[in-house]
Amino acid sequence: MTEIEQLPEFDGHEMVLRLYDRSTNLRGFIAIHNTHAGPAVGGTRFAHYASEEEALRDALRLSRAMTYKCALAKVPYGGGKAVLMAPKNASAAEKLKNEKYFAAYARRIALLDGHFFTGEDVGLTKRDIEILAKHSESIIGRPAVGGLPAHWAALSVFESMRAALKTVFGNDSFKGRTVAIKGLGNVGSDLAMLLHKAGAQIVGAEKNQDRLRAVQKKIPSMRSVSPEAILTQTADILSLCALGGDLSEKTIAKLKVKIVCGAANNQLATPRDSARLAKRGIVYIPDYVANGGGLINVVDELDAKGYDRARVERRVSQVRKTVTDILTAAKKNRCAPDAIADQIGKKRFAGSRA
Fold first, then answer.
1. Domain limits at 14?
2. Is 81 a catalytic residue?
3. Statement: the pTM of the whole predicted model exceeds 0.85
């Protein structure tokens, strides 16, 4: 049995729940990092993991990031995350996601008695969320209410890029700028459209060829490269919108960009990689700040007055100021932006109710 407290991803987590149901082959974890500010919120990820330890470590890592994301987004919630272990074979994975499977998962969520709200993440679809919502009152990002968070996550990344452009180049215009995007799923494709309309040149990478073709149909001028090649493209901005861990000592040495700003969670392979980016003069916008728009949208469903799209738009637009403040403080203190973001986040959630 893994000693959870010995794992590097463990950060004083309040609760870790192992999920198992023999009849549906449900396996996974729910990790609750911090609820000082309010109930935990975080998406449910359905992905293949080589082992239970790998799944657990991902849940710990992602739930911690959610606490900081909530704090930086100024929403009264804490961080949590669920990961469900999927078969490696794609068709087998899709077959597993049936009504009985999600009903079993919903029963486990109910054990937390309103202390964990969850919704769409990697591997789940609109259909999956609709099924889950039938069996649980703790589902957010419901298609019939606030909708899936992709558009809002893309919009907050876009606003974060504008703040970074202003800091690095002195203006926030995308005209004449090139943005390399890795991952053209729901968030990446929405972001590509926002950037295209703003006048940016797009270089895209996506392993799913159907998704790639769909985006190319909307943006014929987009140049496509392989997911491996996207990290060495010459561009103004690199936007990582797939899975995490792309920024390592090896890949950072090959980057040819001035800014890294994307929606993927946990983009740094290790905490030391932030300093490596700074040493190369690359401005890195912490992912949990840049992608906060999705969170802002889904938790608005929990507001006592009901979901308000105008309120969501206003709060997502404020992400730009948050990023500007972080970059200003980082420059003043001669440190990496994520160090400043961590300080702000920790101060906010540590100062919340105990």
1. 8-64+78-135
2. yes
3. yes
